[in-house]
């Protein structure tokens, strides 16, 4: 006897899990792409993601090539991440950047637009961070402060969930 379940059935089961972190295969990265597009503008988050990568790289005094070597990712993808808000980064790249920057992989995946955001305040903090950071050669004290506050948000263990 073979049981077949529809995608909707599985998504409804996943929603009933509440705050539990679940995932298998591609659904772990994007459980409902059509819903995400309608509910949360990924472009806002990707702007913050690109600025975050840029400021963390500059804070550490690294060129793109040096960060690419340290994170074991392709330098050309880092260039696109920092400059193109429409780019959807590879999950492996985001994972490696999260490890390199010592921030939550789950939150950085959300910020990069690879998973649906479950954190009520992450998008708001991402927009605030992106709005406060300016692209300059050296980090200003305000940028440094904004970056530190945002790193603290990304580094939190348990995000606040949308109810």
UniProtKB/TrEMBL annotation:
Transmembrane segments: none annotated. Pfam families: HTH_19 (PF12844). PROSITE patterns: HTH_CROC1. Residues 53-108 form the HTH cro/C1-type domain. GO terms for molecular function: DNA binding. It comes from the Bacteria. This is Transcriptional regulator. It comes from Teichococcus rhizosphaerae.
């Amino acid at each position: 006897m073979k049981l077949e379940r529809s995608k909707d059935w599985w998504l409804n089961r996943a929603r009933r899990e509440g705050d539990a972190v679940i995932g298998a295969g591609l659904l772990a990265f994007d459980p409902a792409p059509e819903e995400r597009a309608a509910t949360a503008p990924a472009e806002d988050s990707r702007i913050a993601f690109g600025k975050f990568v840029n400021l963390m790289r500059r804070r550490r005094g690294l060129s793109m090539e040096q960060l690419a070597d340290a994170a074991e990712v392709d330098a050309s993808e880092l260039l696109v991440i920092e400059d193109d808000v429409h780019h959807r980064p590879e999950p492996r790249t985001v994972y490696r950047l999260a490890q390199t920057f010592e921030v939550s992989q789950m939150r950085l995946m959300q910020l990069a637009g690879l998973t649906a955001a479950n954190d009520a305040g992450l998008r708001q903090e991402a927009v605030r961070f992106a709005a406060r950071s300016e692209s300059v050669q050296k980090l200003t004290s305000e940028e440094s402060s904004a970056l530190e506050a945002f790193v603290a948000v990304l580094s939190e263990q348990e995000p606040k969930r949308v109810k």
